[in-house]
Structures are given as structure tokens and as C-alpha cells.
Amino acid sequence: MQSKNTKKWWALFALSLGVFMGLLDITVVNVALPTMVKSFSTTFNDLQWVVNAYTIAFSVILLVVSKLGDMYGRKKVVLISMLVFVIASAINGLATNLLILDIGRVVQAFGGAGLMTLSMALVASNFGGPQRGTALGILGSVMGLSTVSGPLIGGLLVESFGWPAIFYVNVPIGIIAAILIWFTIDETPSYGKGQKIDWLGMFLSTAAIFFAVYGLVEKENHPHLPWTDLSIAAWLVAAVALLLIFILVEMRSNHPMMNLKLFKNANFVGSVIVAFTLGSAVYASNIYLTSLMQNYMGYSAFDTGVRQLTMTVWNLILGPVTGYLGAKYSKRKIISASLLLAGMGFLLLANAMTTKLTYMQLVPTLIMLGITNGLVNPMLNTAGLEGAAPKEIGMVSGLLNVFRQLGTSFGIVILGLAQTSHYDQYLNAHFSFSQVPLAMAESLKQTLIQAGPFSGNTIAYSSKLQDLPFVKELQGVVWNAYCSGMRGLAYTAMTIVLIGAVGAFCLLKDNSKSK
């Protein structure tokens, strides 16, 4: 009995390794981009697809691989996913040009998505009773930790071994995890055995998610274009149309890709709202906090990661106890209160954003966001799976992951638009220097606006402008514009988590034994 119990915890360790790698590779590449620019002799715009290719492919394949796991066995499909992920990681590290790297990132994402969504389903099916809550809590902590630890791990690997190391490190870890999974995990039943694959449903769901994420990526890359621009609107409208067609097809299918009755469950809908909120506010904002610390406060990627430990450490502290907390107390109240705590953190960030900002002023926000992530992400997995039939666990976990990832893509765009809007407004209102010709000032202002908040500081402090008599004044205006943008971003994120808190409180159900 003891041996079987020990075997399950080794299985959790192996699956956690897979989840950590799959999610880490969404963010870890960001810190390697400056090095890659030099290595490939290219531009940041061209390299952006190294990031976007993984994000889009990861989002697209989540539901499909969940369904395949249900039909053919989750252990079998997760091992295939691990093999795909490891091989693609090795190819990425060896890539000699961007085309090979972009293709490798797509293939790698297919493996990463399988590791992510099927690991959650395997943990849920291999653990029962109180142990399930604890195990899902630990896995949720790993998810949260991997999402926000990219700067630290990526910075350490790139600075010590070069950019290929962020891919090569997956190979030995993946092999070890695969061996452990093979020997420690029991295969789940093939719940869809004998069913026909819903090829049309798979195609429509994949296409709808692809169009939605791609449209958001286009908006992210071109923030000054209106939503109505065809290069953005066409993708989003097509996504909505395909989603509607998908729903109609699934309602009439004898063997549907997805059981739409899941959305009649208020608790599941509440969990989806929380997943989307967590992605669009907490995870998306971490990208902008990292940019703040690196581009404006002057920390290196590694130093930024170290300072963000005040946020990431809470995943390790709180994750293992969330199962106990969720069983004893109301998950609905804990999740709602945690989201409110994140709202307070964003409010403090908005008030701290001045040109005299220090790291210590950021610490309260980092702690509050860390506690929110450390409590909500693990508890969300348990809450979402409550009442789900064994054959639905794969699809439920897949949907939670899809909405978490869609939320992150949506949040990056919405928070970025809020930041850019306030940044532009400040520059337009305050960009005037008495000793500068009007035409020159206008040209410089437009350059800063087009560069956006991320690069404004780099331009203001570039060596080309250091001899200008008004350079100090210019740098002050750019810093203040950036602060204005971050305040707008913080207020937007605060609004998102407040809406999510209300949704969680109204829709999630309470454990009958909870307080």
C-alpha cells in the first residue's frame, strides 16, 4: 500500500517536470531575444515569431490533444507529447536559421500542450479523496511558478551558456520525466474507445482558437491600428464565426469533440472566468513588470528574476497547502478574496509609479500578486474538476488551460493598449521644448510614439541624443509618459480582477464541509 502511494507521488513529480518545461518555454525565450538578434543577424520584429509561433500553436492544440488522450489513453499520449517536445527542443538548440527555429517552436508547442493539459488530467485520475486536492495544488503551483520564472531561469542559462541552452536543458529533464512517467503512472481507460474521431469538430475548434489568438497577436504587434482594421478585425470576426459553426456542429454530432453541456454547470463557468482572469491580469501583467524592471529600472534579466522571487516564491509556499485549505474552507471565498488582493496590488502599483520608483516600492505589489497566483491557480484546478465525470476530466482540464492561455493573450493586448494610450496621451500633452524647432520636436515625438513604451527609454538614453542641450528634460518627459502608461495598465488590470472576483463569488460552488 505504501509502495503504491509512493509511486503516485513520484508520478506527480514526473508530471510536474513536464508541465514546468511546457509552460516555461512560453516565457523563457523573451530574455534570449537580444542574444538571438546578434546570433541570427536579424531584427526583434523577425524574432517575435519565435515567441508567437509557440504561443499560438500551444493554444490551438490544447483541446485536440485532450480529446485524443481521452480516446486513446492519457499516459500514452503524454509520453508521445514528451517525445515530441524533447526532439523539437534539440532541433531548436541546433537551429541555424529562423525558419528552422520557427518550425521547431511550433512542433515543440504541440508537445508542450500535451504535457500541460494531460498531466493535469492524469493527476486528477490517479489521485482520489483529499490527496487529489493536494496533488492538484502542487501541480497548480508548478504551473504558476513556471509561468513567472522565465526571466530568472532564462537569464541564468543565456548568460552562462548562450541562447541554445534554454532548449538543450529540456532534453535530459524530458528523458528523466518520461522514464518516471513510464514506470509510475497507470494508464487511464480509453473513454472514447470505439468512437469515431470528430474531425470536423477538431478542425473548427482549432481554427477558431488560431484565428482568435492570431488576431490578438496582430493587434499586439500593431497597437496603433484600430480594431476595425482588416488585418485585425478579419481574424477576430472569422474566429467568432467559426466558434458559432463549431457549436452548431457539436450540437448535432453523435460523437462530439466537446460536451457542450459542461457550460450549463455554473461552477465550471465560474472556473473558466477565473482562469481567463488569472491569465489576462496576473500573467499578462508580469510581462510588463519585467519590462519595467529591465528597460526602465536598469536590472539585467537575471537580476530581474532574482528580485521577482518575492512574487514567485509564494507558489512553492502555498501550493502544497491549497488542497487542505480548499477542503476546509470555501474555495469560492478564498479565490474571490485572492483576486481582490491582486486588485489591491495593482492599485499600489499605480500609486507607486513615479520617476523616483524603487524596487522596495514594488515589493508589496509583487507579494500580493504572488499570493494571488499561489492560491488561485492550484485551487482553480480542483474547483474546475469538481463534479466532472472521469471521462470528462481531460476535456475540462483542456478547457481551463485554453481559457487561461487565451486570457494571457487577451491580457497582453488589452494591458498593452491601456499602457500605450496613456503613454501617447502624456507625450502629446507635454512634449514641448522651448529651445527645439517645432518640426524637430514633432519628429522626435512621433518616433517615441511609434517606438512605444517598451523602447521609449532606449531612445531617450541613446548615445545619439546625449549631446542635445535638452536631453535631461526629454528623458524626464519619457519617464513620466511611461509612468502614466503603467498607471493606466495597473487600473485596467485592477478592473479585470475585480470583475473576475465577482464572477468567482457568484458562480463557484462551496464545498459542503467548507466554512
TrEMBL record:
Protein's UniProt keywords contain Amino-acid biosynthesis: no
Record-linked Pfam families: MFS_1
Name by which UniProt lists this protein: Multidrug resistance protein Stp
Superkingdom assignment: Bacteria
Family: Belongs to the major facilitator superfamily. EmrB family.
Domain Major facilitator superfamily (MFS) profile: 11-512
Membrane topology, record value: Multi-pass membrane protein
Organism: Convivina praedatoris
Location(s), subcellular: Cell membrane
PANTHER family according to UniProt: MAJOR FACILITATOR SUPERFAMILY MULTIDRUG TRANSPORTER MFSC
UniProt KW keywords: Cell membrane, Membrane, Transmembrane, Transmembrane helix, Transport
Main location: membrane
Transmembrane portions of the chain: 12-35, 47-65, 77-100, 106-124, 136-157, 163-185, 197-217, 232-249, 269-289, 309-327, 334-353, 359-377, 398-418, 489-508
SUPFAM superfamilies cross-referenced by the UniProt entry: MFS general substrate transporter
